[in-house]
Design brief:
With 384 residues, this protein is α+β, with helices and mostly antiparallel strands. 39% of the residues lie in helices and 17% in strands. Strands 15-16-17-18 form a four-stranded antiparallel β-sheet, with no helix packed on it. Strands 1-2-3 form a three-stranded antiparallel β-sheet, with no helix packed on it. The radius of gyration is 27 Å and the shape is flat. The two termini are 52 Å apart.
């Protein structure tokens, strides 16, 4: 059997693989239509299609059990996600040995079976995976899931030596805080010590050699947070809430005041009237129009998409080449993927107000994205 092509061009869009070797390629923008109909993001729809292809074409015995109602779909999908990187013979090996017991064993045993198949049928891939595992260290700060009280979860996988050094530094920082009079619990002091450790790092090497015997000031790195709050909330004698744009979460104004103390640099920008109309004759969108567009619609304007507007293109709803103006009423944030779909396929949309968009899919779905929430209107075009 010849190897499955990795991609192919079809009428302006790519045909891409969504599952393992031997499965059919899928039109690049096809998951958008399915996701729109099912209320899923494009990424979720791609995952659903990929899992279905993996089961139907490479795990046929397990797929038959799903269709018979003997194995839950969610468990079969988890198996499919594990076998996608296996060669075709490896996937068949897993399917043959797993199907008699898939409803009875846990994922640890399934994972061992997949690892065994990888070693048997793809030894080079297994060795590559082993080498990659040594580089699987990470350190994650989950700012996208900030709580109302302004706290976030932090987790990571570190080299043992690095972990010991980090623990020692945080332990020492917690002890210093106690020596300075902190009466907080050890856990709280350790969390504060981590922040102090970061701030100390940011202030290191402020003086650098300019090359002529003199020293030049090197500006420290900056952390930028866009916080939106009302005039009343700014007042120190009134409580309120603020919205943190980077995390799409809300925090208390007291927390914002804490962030703004000490050496923090605070920049207050004037309020942008989201109802004001701005216009330019040029194709390029001025910064003020870009900012107004992002504030009016904080995420990609495509149905179900949650990509932040600050990571999106600023799209002319009616193309500039077709006479669409560069103005407040003809701009919307679209992530690059959905911008390409709108440009090269039958996806079209109208902006009905500052944060409401009516979309039409190539196959006749009609959806409205209003204030970040999406709803399906009709699977057929409405009457004129």
């Amino acid at each position: 059997m010849s190897p499955t092509p990795t991609a192919g061009l079809m009428f302006g869009e790519l045909a891409v693989p969504l599952a393992g070797e031997g499965t059919p390629l899928v039109a690049e923008f096809a998951p958008m239509e399915l996701g729109a109909a099912l209320g899923l993001s494009t990424d979720s729809a791609k995952s659903l299609i990929g899992d279905a292809l993996e089961l139907a074409h490479r795990l046929k015995r397990t797929w038959a059990l799903v269709q018979a109602g003997e194995v839950p779909a969610w468990k079969a999908r988890r198996v499919a996600q594990l076998t996608t990187t296996l060669p075709l013979a490896g996937a068949d090996h897993v399917d043959r040995h797993l199907s008699p017991v898939v409803g009875k064993i846990g994922f640890a045993a399934i994972g061992r079976l997949v690892d065994h198949a990888k070693a048997l049928f793809d030894p080079e891939g297994a060795e590559k995976q082993r080498r990659q595992a040594t580089d699987g260290r990470r350190f994650d700060v989950h700012t996208e899931a900030a709580d109302f009280d302004g706290t976030v979860q932090v987790e990571g996988t570190l080299d043992l030596a690095d972990a010991l050094d980090l623990d020692a530094a945080i332990r020492q920082g917690a002890q210093e805080l106690a020596a300075l009079g902190s009466t907080e619990s050890l856990d709280v002091r350790r969390s504060r010590a981590a922040g102090e450790l970061a701030r100390r790092q940011l202030t290191l090497d402020l003086m650098g050699d300019a090359g002529d015997g003199t020293t030049a000031m090197v500006k420290p790195r900056q952390v930028v947070i866009h916080v939106h709050l009302s005039h009343a909330a700014i007042s120190r004698d009134e409580a309120g809430i603020a919205r943190v744009e980077e995390t799409r979460s809300i925090v208390s104004t007291d927390q914002v005041r804490d962030w703004c103390t000490g050496d923090a640099q605070v920049v207050i920008k004037p309020v942008i009237d989201l109802d004001a109309h701005h216009h330019t004759d040029a194709y390029a969108v001025p910064d003020r129009l870009v900012e107004q567009t992002r504030l009016a619609q904080p995420t990609c304007a495509f149905p179900w998409c949650e990509r932040p507007a600050r990571r999106c293109d600023t799209d002319h709803v009616v193309a500039h080449g077709d006479g669409g103006p560069t103005c407040s009423c003809n701009l919307a944030p679209l992530c690059r993927r959905h911008h390409r779909a709108k440009t090269h396929t039958g996806w079209t949309y109208d902006r009905t107000d500052a944060a409401t968009y009516l979309w039409r899919s190539p196959h006749g779905l009609h959806l409205v994205k209003d204030g970040g929430a999406t709803r399906l209107l009709s699977a057929h075009p409405p009457d004129a």
